[in-house]
Design brief:
There is one protein chain. This protein is mainly alpha-helical and 1973 residues long. It has 108 helices and no strands. Helix 3 runs parallel beside helix 6, helix 20 packs parallel to helix 22 and helix 36 runs parallel beside helix 38. The two termini are 96 Å apart.
Length: 1973
Amino acid sequence: MGDDSEWLKLPVDQKCEHKLWKARLNGYEESLKIFQKIRDEKSPEWSKFLGLIKKFVTDSNAVVQLKGLEAALVYVENAHVAGKTTGEVVSGVVSKVFNQPKAKAKELGIEICLMYIEIEKGETVQEELLKGLDNKNPKIIVACIETLRKALSEFGSKIILLKPIIKVLPKLFESRDKGVRDEAKLIAVEIYRWIRDVLRPPLQNINSVQLKELEEEWVKLPTGAPKPTRFLRSQQELQAKLEQQQSAGGDAEGGGDDGDEVPQIDAYELLEAVEILSKLPKDFYDKIEAKKWQERKEALEAVEVLVKNPKLEAGDYADLVKALKKVVGKDTNVMLVALAAKCLTGLAVGLRKKFGQYAGHVVPTILEKFKEKKPQVVQALQEAIDAIFLTTTLQNISEDVLAVMDNKNPTIKQQTSLFIARSFRHCTASTLPKSLLKPFCAGLLKHINDSAPEVRDAAFEALGTALKVVGEKAVNPFLVDVDKLKLDRIKECSEKVELVHGKKAGLAAEKKEFKPVPGRTASSGAAGDKDTKDISVPKPGPLKKAPATKAGGPPKKGKPSAPGGAGSAGNKSKKGLETKEIVEPELSIEVCEEKASAVLPATCIQLLDSSNWKERLACMEEFQKAVELMDRTEMPCQALVRMLAKKPGWKETNFQVMQMKLHIVALIAQKGNFSKTSAQIVLDGLVDKIGDVKCGNNAKEAMTAIAEACMLPWTAEQVMSMAFSQKNPKNQSETLNWLSNAIKEFGFSGLNVKAFISNVKTALAATNPAVRTSAITLLGVMYLYVGPSLRMFFEDEKPALLSQIDAEFEKMQGQSPPAPTRGISKHSTSGTDEGEDGDEPDDGGNDVVDLLPRTEISDKITSELVSKIGDKNWKIRKEGLDEVAGIINEAKFIQPNIGELPTALKGRLNDSNKILVQQTLTILQQLAVAMGPNIKQHVKNLGIPIITVLGDSKNNVRAAALATVNAWAEQTGMKEWLEGEDLSEELKRENPFLRQELLGWLAEKLPTLRSTPTDLILCVPHLYSCLEDRNGDVRKKAQDALPFFMMHLGYEKMAKATGKLKPTSKDQVLAMLEKAKANMPAKPAAPAKAISKPMGGSAPAKFQPASGPVEDSVSSTVELKPDPKKAKALGVSSKAKSAQGKKVPSKTSLKEDEDKSGPIFIVVPNGKEQRIKDEKGLKVLKWNFTTPRDEYIEQLKTQMSSCVAKWLQDEMFHSDFQHHNKALAVMVDHLESEKEGVIGCLDLILKWLTLRFFDTNTSVLMKALEYLKLLFTLLSEEEYHLTENEASSFIPYLILKVGEPKDVIRKDVRAILNRMCLVYPASKMFPFIMEGTKSKNSKQRAECLEELGCLVESYGMNVCQPTPGKALKEIAIHIGDRDNTVRNAALNTIVTVYNVHGDQVFKLIGTLSEKDMSMLEERIKRSAKRPSAAPIKQIEEKPQRTQSISSNANMLRKGPAEDMSSKLNQARSMSGHPEAAQMVRREFQLDLDEIENDNGTVQCEMPELVQHKLDDIFEPVLIPEPKIRAVSPHFDDMHSNTASTINFIISQVASGDINTSIQALTQLFQIESLAREASTGVLKDLMHGLITLMLDSRIEDLEEGQQVIRSVNLLVVKVLEKSDQTNILSALLVLLQDSLLATASSPKFSELVMKCLWRMVRLLPDTINSINLDRILLDIHIFMKVFPKEKLKQCKSEFPIRTLKTLLHTLCKLKGPKILDHLTMIDNKNESELEAHLCRMMKHSMDQSGSKSDKETEKGASRIDEKSSKAKVNDFLAEIFKKIGSKENTKEGLAELYEYKKKYSDADIEPFLKNSSQFFQSYVERGLRVIEMEREGKGRIPSSTGISSQVEVTCVPAPTSTVSSIGNTNGEEVGPSVYLERLKILRQRCGLDNTKQEDRPPLTSLLSKPAVPTVASSTDMLHSKLSQLRESREQHQHSDLDSNQSHSSGTMTTSSSSTANIDDLKKRLERIKSSRK
């Protein structure tokens, strides 16, 4: 027992697997208990047993197994996871339970199987049971059959699939085991119970005894429809419902429920297809042609036996059908005819839809053979044609049938009508649309009047059937002229008809509808539209007699006279009636006079023919009044117009009377019930007057009114024939003009193109040019409606004329026809009747295709031609094809009957010669265009073979085949292609090319269809195999097509179809289906009432609600106009469009118009931020792809759904590009009005636009770029900054488009990139564009390189990211590119950098190959641009230009932080050497974060002071001077902290806003001590920048351009006055020299520099003592060396030489002979031209004055009067300083000191300041400057002036007092010795002796090479700057000679530290330098 206790302790699941049977038994018992206890079906307990259940049922011990089965049953019933075990458990049951001897085990096994079926696992169970039928053990087979029988009995045939069971039944009946045979009999009886006789054919071949027994059993079965007694879990509630009903005693529901199951199984489906072609007798084709009828009979009998097989295998039956057809048509032996007909019947029945392709050939032959009288022949032919009809559609054979209806033979007529009647029975309202019904009714109406009674009876039967099928409303319009008796007869026939599709319920309804019609005559309002139309049917008689007043009455009042008025219902009824009813008899003149006198004043009638024109005019006025007051119903129109036509009538000579007369005609037509009879009376006269200068317009108005009353088509035809029957060319041309206009107003519906074309041809041949021009204009208008097919009629015109026609068509291209404004009502109903009337124009009325004259070419397709096409020699085959192409081209439009051509062409589609295959495809394309929609009937026999060609290995052949298929599909619609098994058969072929092309084609076409034939499901298994194809492209295409299949078939059907796949494949496919389900597009919306024919008529008017506001109606029809039209107009647009053509109309209801009124972008708070977060958190896909996949598009769609209007989103994501264009147009319209919305959705808009970049349609691309230009302009105006997310998901895709082949697109993209720099920093754009240079597209590389050049040119080297070195190296690589344009672009970009940066470029680009380097050097030479344009220019000029628009409030607007910092980054280091700038350590940088966050303020020690200053800095420049407050006295502390001042000013200068920058510079030059710090080099660059800015033409384009120029002008004056005078003079001289040297420099530039020099000359008397003359003279010396006198004289302008002379003259005048002491810096004076010049001048002035004393300057003494002794001066100054020192008198003292200094500008106050503290010194200087500013400010405002771009220099008379600081003399004369001493110190400092700074070049070299400036590194500049700040001003004056020529301003752009302690900085600086070395 120890063992027992062991297993007892184990857990249940281990017991169940124990090797001891007792343990297992115990385990199963416990499991059973557990299972019964668990209440929750989803409990985790169930999962523990998942792996064990199979063991439960397959236990080897019979006793234990029973218990296991019980437990398993409970498990399956209750566990939600049980389904997972189905396969293994059922197979276990089959193999291990059904063979058990115990009945109980078998019962439990069956129960378990049934339970699995209940929990929705029926398919798996059935699969396993069917496998069990193959088992060798008969016990198992019997149990499996029994299980299947029970399942069928309980669950019904919906759950248990019968087809696989029926297939195995015959085999079971043959079993040796009696038990199996008996069980088979039982299941056969059960199946019969469910499907009745359908079971008979499959069991025909079983043992006759068995069959007899079965028959006996079958008879015993009850007749009622069986009902399932057990339901699936999902159907349990249905079961409860059923029980209730049964208890209530009604089982109607049950019957209804299963009624639809009966046709579920088709016997045909259950049969095996038999292949018969190979079994035909070998000599069949010879025998069938044999002379002896017996041989022919043998051949036919052999076929008859074969075709008796109920299901035939598909194959090529063309030859067999051809042979049989020949017998039927030509054989003289009627017996053989009947036999051949039987064979055809057999073929049609056995092949079903697969026979469809041959139907078109056979039908006409059979119908014509009905002339045979013998009953058995007729019967055989009837059976044949009926069987054939079921294989095709009425549409496909309609042409053939209609052709036969006109046959003279009454038997043929009778049999055709009977055939039509039988065919109609198989139709439904949808498969028998009006367009099809109309021609049939027309033919049948002829037959009901036939002399032969049998023909009449047959026609009545056919019409009755039609009436029954589609209802009266549809048929009535065609029965207008049928009299009462015949109408009753038709109705009588219709009541007897039994339809195939049973329509009992419909019948009562039809009857009801019919009765009230006659009484509805006067009804109006909304119903009036359709009702009044109906009236015309029953009561045609009386209406014709009276002038239709009663019937038309009330509705017509809906439309008094307004064309296109609101009462669309009324309009329509009026039109409906008039076209049919208002046919007045012609009245005699007496009757007319009588009627007219009743309504007109007597005098009026008497004076009509008065000889006095005035009387006639008065009479006309009375006539008009009378007409205006007349009521519509009482107006005798015909009588009135006859009165008007009465003598003198239309020969009236007085134009005023004539004008009145014509106006009255128009009034009568508008106000009365105007008939065609009346119209004919006046039209001739109107046409005669249309060319009259004075009366022409009135005539046209009258004609338009008549056209509205009598319909344009009729009127136009009359008018045209009248115009061209007379000779007057003016009338002809004006008639054509009127017609052009009328077509636009009325639309094109119903016009007779044929008639027009002949008239237009006459007009084109006219001698009068005006007639020809009018005709061409008319053609242009017709082109809008008819499309390109119109041109075909004029191809034989003269080339000159044809080119004019083409030019006119070209103008019209892309335009859509205008929405009709008149006569709309006929086609537009107010929505009540859309389905019915919407189609009406289809009825040929305005189906342009129907109007085109078609040629019959079948006679040209001779048997010789056909044999040529099939010849063995390819050349002869080619000749044959050429002939066919010629025939089609010549005919232009052809009839559908093309004889043997299809078979011949089909053979050529698999020609071994690919050129012929392509030629055949081209012919087939032509054929589609030429035949139009009638090509439908050839889809099966010719269209499907084209699809086979899609599998060709050659790409070009596949492309041609695809184009051909599309051309066909455009004409036929998709239904014909998808019907039947042909398409699925093609997909079945394992050809990867065929599969991917076909799936691609289906993916394109399916989304555009509203519905598809059910046969589409046949393609699904093959689609699944494509999903697992070896070829990746096939798999991808299959995945793409999946959602579109699902869109039509639904997920359930598709998932069900996976049942037949292997388990692994099934899982994969199901996963893909799930994914596709998410991406499944919605089906295109159906119109309000389903329009049964896919292609709407050509006139868009019909969809247009008349009452809609005009603008809405126009917009809503824009895109649908071309669609229906083009589809008819022969192959212009794809079929997809015509399908849309029918969808869109439904939406153009008023409701939709209202929907469109709201905003298109909805502002969602924080929506964009959330989207960015999601993308960062990887919740959604990052917008990054090479081509957009579906998941991206779906994601965007989802994101847009919340913030874009639904209707716009539909347009945006439509499959047709025209909708995208429409969406873009809407977005452009709403751009201004919805700025907020646009910015809120900007990321989505940009992403959507990137998708458009991947479209192939150029018009969309152009429109998208147009929108982008507007968008970025708006964003920059709004000062918006792109976020990183927006930029990165848009810019890379935009850059792709820069490589487009079209020039115009590239231009647009470049323009957009340019505008983007206003909303996104150029430095961040740079890497994106850089990435673009790596493209494979050479155009893109070239354009990107050019763009990089532009960026560098506009924004300086700063934009080069990550560093200029790396960027330039990348660019330089492209110098060696294969493509010439890329090489040029790379060279140009580097030359641009060279122009900005000089020779340093060569360092940055690294090593290049010799060839590349030589190309570059050559290009640099050629560019001949000297690098004088230093980067300062960039800093000053370009960023201002580009950013001035966008960043005025750069720091005020709270843009996203990252964008602002990016702008600041750009400004961060605009130093001369960007690489060095990158390395500047943190403490040396501006604290940019502070600048950003503090709204533009900079934190320094005393922030409140800084704040104090800000108001002025942001003040806009309103007057020429910036209004800047004088620096406050408290500012001194800040001034002492120079670093923070400079920091602050730099932050302002670096601003993107031009005004801020200029004001900051002005500010800088207000602070004199700082202004004087500027070195010569800095000033030179600054002046260069400012002057260039003033001359920049682009500034004038800015809004505040003039303002900017004035501000710059003022700044220039400030710089000239406030800078260190030596430095500025020196800078101007060097600048003048550079500008004269540089070829690229403009003369204006030099002129402005000289004007600045003149200004300086005027200031000289005041400033002479503060100037270092030695340096100035050295500069002049260098200038004269570069430009000797001779060279200067050669200059175009004399100004340079005069400027130089004036300067020297003034210096001589002020200095006298002492000037010669100042030539110390010139090396060899003796050779200097300057010395000689000065000597000459001195001599000249000596002669004049005879005195050596210094001249006084104009402004008074500039030095202290020598007489005042030093002592006095000292005492006086001591007194002043005392006052300043005392608290009370500070201000007074400062004012005195200022006055004193002003008087004696040379006074030296240095000794008094030396002893005082640093604080006191700066206080005094500050005080003096405040006073100076206050006084000067007041004195200067009136005389604002300066140097403007108009180049006028005026002098400012303000005194410029300078704080004596820099090297002024102490009042004594200074001799040369002093200067020599100074020079020594200078030379020492400049490194000419033993100096510390080895890297400084000698002074002379610096001064002698102004042309190629060196570039100072930023550390050097920092060094020089700090030393400037540190050392005294006098020393400092010379210390920056080294950076004289440097390129960038230390003061302005060097990042400055915020630390006050300069010594500390110095130490750090030294460390940096040493580390760099």
